[in-house]
């Protein structure tokens, strides 16, 4: 069994981590005071517990309610810069070597920022965080994914156009997020068509609050390159927990095409995907050959880190260095980064660190 301390020392990759779901409680308190936004409590420890308990409801809709407080703390340039900088530093402290911060610029315009100014503020904060982490001996590459809210009354291509405008300036890709059930991915078909025509990267939340049909639509109609969560693909597998599982045609397609699943175990428990971690499909999907990657989703709401997520999988399913390395390499290969850069991080950092960890275990 691997401990959090052992896992923290290993290089990891964070692909599914919401910027507005990972703030430090003290930062939320300070920024909300500046903005005149009332919080449930102004004690950092109590506020952290409040976020976790509010999210721990078994409902995605209820889970999302806490974001009203975190987005209220991200409404000025200075606030966005600080949140992005702290995002990078917190990830680096957990051993993350590559991180994509996903967030919805449209939710941060209440005090006069434009979409462009908001993206540039996060860009600058990420750059400051990387520079500080490097100076402290913790190298990390951090980019941003701009997200459109899928429950918008009238979907537009505005955020997709923003992703294209800043694709060479810190924005690695695009996503849609928010309430999944009742808001299928094809509502944003025009955005996905625009991105695909321009050879851009995007991932789509699907298969968390809705079933395999949502994942099918994201993959087969919208052309998703990765799937955020995706764990309910297991519903297209007969005898999923048995000795002889039979994959449906779509589940087999997802597996065989190596479409990455961005799995967030603790978050999934909070939104009702499974009652306990032992009942979560993540380990079984990995055993069946799906391209499983592991992430936090929202570190504040789930009171977690990527090291903690892997430690829980180690304790529950017996994951060791081999399984953690497999998931980490899979995540790095799925990153919205150039192929040479991905392979350089795998060959230069990830593989050597895991080889060294195995030698230490043998010794």
Automatic annotation (TrEMBL):
A Pfam family it matches: A_deaminase
Enzyme class: hydrolase
Domain of life: Bacteria
Co-factor requirement: Zn(2+)
Enzyme Commission number: 3.5.4.4
Keyword tRNA processing listed: no
InterPro entries documented for this protein: A_deaminase_dom, Ado/ade_deaminase, Metal_Hydrolase
Domain Adenosine deaminase: 11-350
UniProt signal peptide: none
Any GO molecular function: hydrolase activity
Keywords per UniProt: Hydrolase, Metal-binding, Zinc
Keyword Metal-binding: yes
NCBIfam families with a match to the protein in the record: aden_deam, PRK09358.1-2
Record-stated family: Belongs to the metallo-dependent hydrolases superfamily. Adenosine and AMP deaminases family.
Protein name: adenosine deaminase
